[in-house]
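User: Could you go from structure to sequence for me? I need the amino acid at each position, not a summary. Structure tokens:
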């Protein structure tokens, strides 16, 4: 009799664990995904949205092939305040400290790197339109590297201790609650893309540990060439089997603001129904999402936690009001996240 009851008990336990799914549309319950979140408006809005659009009985039902979500990277799910963007830190190191490069770095590359150093160390404002100045300098700074060499270089720097934190490298600087959003959306049939202003190949290297595929990463781009191509145009040149792809110093696009929309249209071919960002550089992407024929939603994360992260709370709260007025849901790092970077990570003073 006991031998007979054991399989029944296993089946019964399996039935109970199956109750974690929403019976209305057979999608996973959100409870198991958001263990690092506090109850909040933004999370409720996301859960209600997903439950609605994945329910075949809902008039707002969206087929899986159209469940597209786009995520900015820096400041949205990767830290950007240690003491600034990863790619800014990397350029500063490359031009001013890297013994293999600093003595041959072009003057404009050194100037951009010094702008970053003056900003993070002395609080001197960055020059106007610095996004483009940095992008052009970064294109030059890594020109001549093969893609494999650049990937190794990024990962080597990412393994360094993150400035301003104890117990975390740059490459570990993920907002842990936001990673739960990825898992939740994937479990509900969404495909998500990283759409960043940072270099595409930097983004690929950083998100690789998360299992995000390279073809789902969109970012700043420079022109590439084959290692033996020389000056001949690619349309006239046949690459050999033993050749490598090389970065050039020619910038193609800085993937910010409306450029993000252009890149989404060209590379994804569909309008996203969910969009996540943290700054004005993401507003165009959000507005493109909200123009969708399907029910859609956009979320802005504000860095308002000056206890667990380096943040300007007053500025963040002002931005939060601005984003709500624009029709975006606001995620508060201070109020909505139980943790930011995970256990064992501590905010400390910056060192230079």
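Assistant: Here is the amino acid at each position, in order:
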């Amino acid at each position: 009799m006991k031998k007979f009851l054991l399989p029944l008990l296993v089946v019964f336990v399996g039935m109970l664990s199956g109750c974690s799914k929403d019976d209305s549309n057979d999608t996973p319950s959100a409870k198991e995904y958001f263990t690092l979140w506090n109850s909040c408006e933004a999370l409720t809005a996301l859960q209600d949205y997903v439950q609605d659009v994945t329910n075949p009985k809902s008039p707002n039902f969206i087929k899986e092939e159209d469940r597209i979500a786009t995520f900015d990277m820096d400041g949205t799910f990767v830290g950007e305040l240690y003491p600034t963007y990863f790619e800014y830190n990397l350029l500063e190191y490359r031009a001013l400290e890297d013994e293999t490069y600093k003595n041959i770095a072009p003057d404009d590359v050194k100037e951009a790197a010094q702008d970053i150093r003056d900003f993070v160390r002395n609080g001197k404002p960055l020059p106007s339109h610095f996004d483009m100045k940095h992008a052009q300098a970064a294109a030059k700074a890594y020109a001549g590297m093969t893609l494999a060499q650049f990937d190794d270089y990024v990962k080597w720097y990412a393994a360094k201790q993150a400035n301003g934190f104890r117990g975390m490298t740059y490459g570990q600087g993920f907002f842990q609650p936001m990673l739960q959003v990825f898992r939740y959306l994937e479990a509900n049939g969404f495909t998500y893309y990283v759409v960043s202003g940072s270099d595409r190949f930097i983004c690929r290297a950083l998100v690789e540990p998360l299992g995000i595929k390279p073809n789902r990463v969109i970012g700043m781009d420079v022109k590439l060439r084959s290692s033996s191509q020389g000056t001949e145009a690619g349309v006239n040149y046949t690459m050999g089997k033993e050749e490598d792809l090389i970065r050039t110093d020619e910038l193609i696009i800085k993937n910010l603001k409306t450029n993000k929309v252009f890149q989404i249209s060209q590379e994804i071919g569909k309008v996203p129904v969910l969009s996540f960002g943290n700054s004005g550089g993401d507003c165009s992407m959000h507005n493109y999402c909200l123009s969708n024929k399907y029910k859609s939603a956009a979320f802005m994360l504000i860095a308002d936690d000056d206890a667990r992260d380096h943040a300007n709370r007053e500025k963040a709260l002002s931005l939060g009001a601005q984003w709500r007025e624009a029709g975006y849901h606001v995620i508060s790092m201070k109020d909505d996240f139980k943790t930011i970077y995970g256990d064992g990570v501590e905010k400390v003073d910056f060192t230079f």
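One structural detail worth keeping in mind: The first strand starts at residue 21 and ends at 22.
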